[in-house]
Structures are given as structure tokens and as C-alpha cells.
Amino acid sequence: MSTSRTVSTKQISNKKPLGKKAIGVFGGSFDPVHFGHLRAALELALTFNLESVRLVPNHQPPHRALADVSAQHRIAMLELAIRQCGQLKLDTREMDRNGPSYTIDTLMSLREEFGVEAPLIFGLGADAFEKIASWHRANELLEVSNIAVLSRPGTDVNAISDQTLPFAAHWVSAADALLSTPSGLLYKLEMTPLAISSTRIREQIARGWAPDFLLPEAVCHYIEQHQLYRPANARLTLSKEAEL
Ligand code: ATP
Ligand code: MG
Fold first, then answer.
1. 9 in ligand 1 pocket by Cβ < 6 Å?
2. C-alpha angle 120/121/124, rounded to 5°?
3. Residue nearest to atom 20 of ligand 1 (CA)
4. How far apart, in whole angstroms, are the C-alpha atoms of residue 38 and residue 201?
5. How much is the pLDDT for 150?
6. What distance in Å separates the CA atoms of residue 66 and residue 235, rounded to the nearest whole number?
7. Do the Cβ atoms of 181 and 143 come closer than 8 Å?
8. Which fold has domain 9-189?
9. Which of 21, 123, 139, 213 is most exposed, with the fewest beta carbons within 10 Å of its own?
10. 108-166: per-residue pLDDT in tens?
């Protein structure tokens, strides 16, 4: 028997919004940040009418080898990317902790900062959600926050069975429901599909392709200026050329 239950929209519509400002969170390696991340975070803000969404770069992603470039470069690129957008904010709390960046710790620290009543909405892409059962203390995530799963080309979120989830899946079909409760609900957010990935961008740059039109212009310039994501010998050749 499945442990999931769907909370009906009727049940939810009886609930009043908490009156507490909801907090939107979107984590990642941002190695480098691209339009897929930025549009996802913005559509999270627009869907829930959030004042802002916090972009939280990982210090040390728990599920992969260390990010390709330093934390300082990833932060600098994020800063450049969101400079013109008041709805997206940089949140470096994971950088300030040692060891792996566990989402449960980040959500708990936001809970401490904003209090028990504030609705927390943690957004993540469908590909990341697919692996959520393997996350550290996964069964506690919904105790601390709501979760919005954003569509991402290449992953069918509807194919993920509730039974593979580490928690009782309380899916709701009305976005507003997540504003009526501090935690505990799941929502599927159909975002504008953008088949962009950092891995592909890194591979293309290593091959010598410019990353233009996949990420903000200022970030493209930064990557070029610092010669990021190039194979070590290409970097050497370029810096030699620069000396001549
Ligand atoms: P990598 O290829 O290095 O894993 P990535 O493009 O997947 O990079 P991440 O930093 O791993 O980017 O992703 C951070 C979050 O953004 C994850 O929740 C991921 O699912 C989501 N995300 C990334 N790109 C997209 C996209 N194009 N559409 C929707 N969600 C995305
Ligand atoms: Mg990824």
C-alpha cells in the first residue's frame, strides 16, 4: 500500500495564508550558473508570488566530485548573473559550513532564522528530485520545508513513483496551498522548458566553443577573462599568447 496521500484543493482552500512571508530557496553547484537555473528560480518566485528566491551555492556537493572551479569563481558568476534581478538573492550559508552541503542543514538553518511559521519553499529540478531518496536525512526534508519540483527536459517527474520517496508524498495541485503551511507539501511546477546544463556548457568550453546564449553575457565574459573550464594545456597556450 502506498504511503502517499493527496491533499485535495478543497481541503486546502479552507486554509488561510499564514500571513508570514514565504521563503523561496534554490540550491545548486552553479558550475557555472546558466539560464536554466535563473529561469527556474524566477518562475519559482513568480508562481508563489515571493519577494525573492535565495540562490544557495553548494560548498561541497555531497553527490558528486568537487565542483570544477573554486567557490569564489562560482559565487562571482552568480553575483554577475543576478545583478539586474531584484527577485534573486545570493545566500552563501553553505559556504560558511565545513564539510558536505546537506540540504536538510540548510533548510534547518533557514527555519531557525525565519521562525517556525514561515512557509519554506525549496525548489529543485526534476532530475535532482529523482534522486532525493539518497539524500542525507531525506525523510526529514518535508518536516522542515515544502518542496516545489520544477520540470526539466530529460526527466519525467510523473514517472517517479511515490513509493520510491522516503516520505509520505503530500502532492497538491494548487500552488497557493504551499503558502498556507510552513512545510509538508509537494508541488509540481511546469516551468518554461530549457534544456541547458552546466555539464554540457563545461564540455563545450573545453572543446573551445563559446558558451554565449546559454548564460548571461557578463558570466560569459567572466569565464573568458578567467579562462575557466578549459583544459590545463589550453590555458597554458592562451596565457603564453597573452604574454607575446
Ligand atoms: P551539472 O550538469 O553540473 O549537474 P546542472 O545544470 O544540473 O549542472 P546544478 O547546479 O546541478 O545544474 O543544478 C542546481 C539545480 O537546478 C538542480 O535542482 C537542478 O535540477 C536545477 N536545474 C538545473 N538546470 C535546470 C534546467 N535547465 N531546468 C530546470 N531545472 C534545472
Ligand atoms: Mg545537476
1. no
2. 140
3. 125
4. 15
5. 98
6. 20
7. no
8. Rossmann fold (3.40.50)
9. 213
10. 999 999 999 999 999 999 999 999 999 999 999 999 999 999 999 999 988 888 889 99
Q: Give buried/exposed letters for 159-184 (b at 16+ CB in 10 A, else e).
A: ebebeebbbebbbbebbbbbbbbbbb
Q: Is 152 in the pocket of ligand 1 (CB under 6 A)?
A: yes
60: Cα within 13 Å, side-chain hemisphere: 5
Give me the chain's average pLDDT, please. 88
**50 close to ligand 1 (CB < 6 Angstrom):** no
Are the beta carbons of 123 and 53 closer than 8 angstroms?
A: yes
- Of the ligands numbered here, which is closest to the C-alpha atom of 130? 1
- For the stretch 129-140, pLDDT in tens is 999 999 999 999
Structure confidence at residue 98 as a pLDDT band (50, 70, 90): confident
Distance CA 40, CA 36 (A): 6
What are 201-222's pLDDT values in tens digits? 999 999 999 999 999 999 999 9
* Residue spans per domain, the chain: 9-189, 198-243
Q: Is the dihedral of CA 90, 128, 167, 140 positive or negative?
A: negative
Q: Which residues contact 230 (CB under 8 A, 6 or more apart)?
A: 205, 206, 238
- Ligand closest in space to the Cα of 65: 1
Residues β-bridged to residue 19: none
**12 alpha carbon – ligand 2 mean position (Å):** 33
Confidence at residue 97, expressed as pLDDT on a 0 to 100 scale = 81
31 lines ligand 1 (CB under 6 A): yes
The Å distance, Cα 63 to ligand 2 centre, comes to: 10
